[in-house]
């Protein structure tokens, strides 16, 4: 499904490069619910934009939901044709989805950041034409998007190195073990690093994690750090929110594709929406 969604999203973007004021009838008359435990503005707008583009209507609910009430998925199913969820948990979303009679898509949880990670992968394909054999370096504090990369990289043939801690404070991402098993089967490489130079060496794609005010110096990244390790073409993404760990020179560098990835949010959301609701591919 991953490759199908990426291909569908890219086809949609090629067809409609500017979605402002555009409206298709793929999901005409459908209702899409955006259900958030915490407000995720970028994801909220991406899903809302995607719904509008495909001819659907959306409703946004931000509330501290009682996910342990198993009937909630069933009740909300009466009122929506698809439900996009952002929550601080993940297992509760699975229970919610099991009770639902309409498609449930996890936009963001403590474990996954599906839309953002897929939007970044889409931007990488747009740059290089393929993913197989690329070296991806993730540099920053642990984040749900890292867990998503841990699963996506072996599926897509990408080698992954990451640094999310220092030697004195070892941290293992939630899905590291699962990624190890997948990597062994896909014959890709996976490595946890504790030094900046090690994670950046031979990296084709560099992704900075979100800002952490307590670790600004530990995860400070600049053009010079990349140039020391890399002579070939590289691209950079920032997960957001951005802090002082990445300066303007890198954030706005010609090799930075951060805004391309953010633009791709609503194309990925549209491809997911069309796929789960109508089994439709662009």
From TrEMBL:
Gene Ontology CC terms: mitochondrion
Annotated Aspartate/ornithine carbamoyltransferase Asp/Orn-binding domain ranges read: 133-274
Q: Which GO terms describe its molecular function?
A: amino acid binding; ornithine carbamoyltransferase activity
Record-linked Pfam families? OTCace (PF00185)
Q: Which InterPro entries match?
A: Asp/Orn_carbamoylTrfase_sf (IPR036901), Asp_carbamoyltransf_Asp/Orn-bd (IPR006131)
Q: What is its EC number?
A: 2.1.3.3
**Keyword entries, A-Z:** Transferase
Instruction: Tell me if Chloroplast is a UniProt keyword of this record.
Output: no
Q: So which domain of life are we looking at?
A: Eukaryota
Give the GO biological process terms.
citrulline biosynthetic process; L-arginine biosynthetic process via ornithine
Q: Which PANTHER family does the annotation name?
A: ORNITHINE CARBAMOYLTRANSFERASE, MITOCHONDRIAL, ORNITHINE TRANSCARBAMYLASE, MITOCHONDRIAL
- Which family is this sequence assigned to? Belongs to the aspartate/ornithine carbamoyltransferase superfamily. OTCase family.
Please report the name of this protein according to its UniProt entry: ornithine carbamoyltransferase
The record lists the organism as Danaus plexippus plexippus
């Amino acid at each position: 499904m991953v490759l199908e969604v990426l291909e569908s999203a890219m086809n949609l973007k090629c067809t409609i490069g500017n979605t402002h004021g555009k409206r298709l009838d793929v999901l005409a008359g459908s209702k899409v619910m955006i259900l958030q435990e915490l407000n995720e503005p970028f994801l909220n707008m991406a899903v809302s934009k995607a719904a509008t583009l495909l001819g659907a209507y959306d409703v946004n609910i931000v509330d501290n939901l009682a996910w342990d009430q198993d009937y909630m998925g069933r009740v909300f199913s009466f009122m929506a044709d698809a439900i996009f969820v952002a929550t601080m948990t993940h297992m509760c979303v699975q229970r919610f989805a099991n009770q639902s009679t309409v498609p449930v898509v996890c936009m963001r949880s403590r474990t996954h950041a599906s839309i953002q990670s897929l939007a970044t992968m889409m931007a990488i394909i747009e740059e290089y034409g393929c993913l197989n054999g690329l070296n991806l370096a993730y540099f920053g504090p642990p984040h749900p998007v890292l867990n998503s990369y841990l699963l996506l990289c072996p599926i897509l043939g990408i080698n992954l190195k990451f640094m999310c801690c220092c030697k004195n404070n070892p941290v293992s991402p939630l899905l590291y073990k699962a990624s190890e098993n997948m990597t062994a089967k896909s014959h890709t490489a996976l490595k946890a690093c504790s030094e900046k130079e090690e994670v950046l060496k031979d990296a084709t794609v560099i992704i900075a994690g979100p800002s952490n005010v307590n670790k600004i110096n530990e995860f400070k990244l600049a053009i010079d750090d990349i140039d020391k390790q890399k002579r070939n073409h590289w691209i950079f993404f920032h997960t957001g929110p951005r802090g002082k760990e990445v300066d303007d020179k890198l954030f706005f560098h010609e090799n930075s594709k951060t805004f391309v990835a953010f633009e791709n949010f609503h194309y990925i959301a549209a491809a997911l929406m069309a796929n789960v609701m109508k089994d439709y591919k662009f």
